[in-house]
């Protein structure tokens, strides 16, 4: 069965650079969620989209933005990167209430 | 505010022993509740979910969980753990995650 695809899987950036993470949901899923998981931490909800509209907002920094496109894929744009942004970024998709997670993008900011 | 609490940061059990991981929720209405498992450096895999109806739900890998409204709990159980069950376990209401319980299996 198709799963959530995230790219890239690994990303290394320097401080103050920008990064774009991509998420391709499971086919026919209409909702996408973004989470940030720091080392040894629980996933923190950032933002979600339903039918290409922002549906919920969590602890997403103002330096980050996201959108969902007409093909339902989503991109998380991160600007002015800080060392503390180093984390595993998960995308999840759902059709109803159950979220299915992608493998994550590991971002390292140097 | 809604919250999900996992009281145990670490749990150590012997291989073959039974397991119970605790999860408490704070929610006005009947919540949606999920258990996910995460191996080191990996994504989160759904073990089971509760929406409504039968309060005892069966999941994958031999796991089950029971929703108890009177105790505001949704504890995860397995009758006999295997070494491969060693991982981080998260309880969530769909947006808010508990802090996770790190399960260690002793040989």
Any chance you could write out the topology, listing elements then pairs?
The complex is a heterodimer of chains A (110) and B (107).
Chain A: E1 5-7, E2 10-13, E3 19-24, E4 31-37, E5 44-50, E6 53-57, E7 64-68, E8 74-78, E9 87-94, E10 100-101, E11 105-109
Chain B: E1 3-5, E2 10-14, E3 19-21, E4 24-26, E5 33-38, E6 44-50, E7 56-58, E8 64-68, E9 73-78, E10 87-92, E11 101-106
Parallel strand pairs in B: 2-11
Antiparallel strand pairs in B: 1-4, 3-9, 5-6, 5-10, 7-8, 8-9, 10-11
State the main characteristics.
heterodimer, A: 110 residues, 52% strand, B: 107 residues, mainly beta, 11 strands
Largest sheet of chain A: 7 strands, mixed
Strand order of the largest sheet of chain B: 2-11-10-5-6
How would the global form of chain B be characterised? globular
Alpha-carbon distance between the two ends of chain B:
41 Å
What does the average pLDDT of chain A come to? 95
Which band does the percent of strand residues of chain A land in?
over 45%
Output the structural class of chain A.
mainly beta
**Rg from alpha-carbon coordinates of chain B:** 13 Å
How large is the count of helical segments of chain B?
0
Return the string of H and E elements of chain B: EEEEEEEEEEE
What is the C-alpha radius of gyration of chain A, as a whole number of Å?
13 Å
**How many E strands of chain B?**
11
Q: How big a fraction of the residues of chain B is strand?
A: over 45%
Low-confidence regions of chain A: none
Main beta sheet of chain B: 5 strands, mixed
| Helix and strand composition category of chain B | mainly beta
Distance between the termini of chain A: 36 Å
């Amino acid at each position: 069965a198709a799963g959530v695809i995230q790219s890239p899987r690994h990303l290394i950036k320097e401080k103050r650079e920008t990064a774009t993470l991509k998420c391709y949901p499971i086919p026919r899923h209409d909702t996408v969620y973004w989470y940030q998981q720091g080392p040894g931490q629980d996933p923190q909800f950032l933002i979600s989209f339903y039918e290409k509209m922002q549906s919920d907002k969590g602890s997403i920094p103002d330096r980050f933005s996201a959108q969902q496109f007409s093909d339902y894929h989503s991109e998380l744009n991160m600007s002015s990167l800080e060392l503390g942004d180093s984390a595993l970024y998960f995308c999840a998709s759902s059709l109803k209430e159950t979220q299915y997670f992608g493998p994550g993008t590991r971002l390292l900011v140097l | 505010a809604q919250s999900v609490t996992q009281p145990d940061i670490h749990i150590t059990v012997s291989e073959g022993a039974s397991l119970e991981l605790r999860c408490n929720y704070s929610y006005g209405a009947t919540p949606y509740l999920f258990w996910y498992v995460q191996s080191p450096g990996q994504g989160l895999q759904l073990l089971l979910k509760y929406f409504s109806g039968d309060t005892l739900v069966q999941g994958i890998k031999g796991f089950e969980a029971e929703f108890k409204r009177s105790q505001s709990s949704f504890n995860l159980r397995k009758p006999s753990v295997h070494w491969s069950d060693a991982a981080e376990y998260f309880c969530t209401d769909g947006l808010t995650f508990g802090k996770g319980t790190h399960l260690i299996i002793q040989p």
